[in-house]
Amino acid sequence: MRLGCAKVLKSIQHPCSSQLPTSLTRGKTSSLLKYPAVSSVSCLNFHKISNEKRIAPSEPKVKLTDAVRHFSITQPKLSGHGDHSKLWVYERYVSAALLGIVPLGLMMPNILFDLLIAVASVMHMHWGIEAIVIDYIRPIIFGNLISKLAVYFVYLLSIFTLVGLLNLTFNNCGLANSIKLLWRINKQE
């Protein structure tokens, strides 16, 4: 507590500053402990008075934008809408819906449930892998080109996965029946 008051004493005229030797104002804050005139009580009273008068000790203020670099690979002005908190809510709805869609689709295989499973699982997979790529393949570390290519690769992966699942649904026995077929193969071995 006493060492913290030395910083305040340098920048603001403290009521106890007249009782301090001049050597304390030159940065030798460790010798504050030797002088009982500057006690923690007087410093506490000073802080209480300064808070009542709305006088804040002057400390250098660091802006958050100066301390943290921009991690996004897209500029905010290129974004279609600024509020991305709604996307987080949609992600949660899709995750919760998968808990009901997958068991229903496996119990009652039909084209509607196969389509719902395909689209919902690809959306869930895409949002998860995209978040991982954006978090870990940063432009600061890998450069803009590699980070953008990684995001484009996630989009390509999602498109190919959706096309493959839709092909399985429309041109084969269906998604749920394919999963049941895999389970039967494992049981026969």
From TrEMBL:
InterPro entries: CybS, SQR/QFR_C/D
Transmembrane segments: 93-109, 149-170
Molecular function via GO: heme binding; metal ion binding; ubiquinone binding
Binding residue positions for a ubiquinone: Y136
Cited function: Membrane-anchoring subunit of succinate dehydrogenase (SDH) that is involved in complex II of the mitochondrial electron transport chain and is responsible for transferring electrons from succinate to ubiquinone (coenzyme Q).
Family per record: Belongs to the CybS family.
Record's protein name: Succinate dehydrogenase [ubiquinone] cytochrome b small subunit
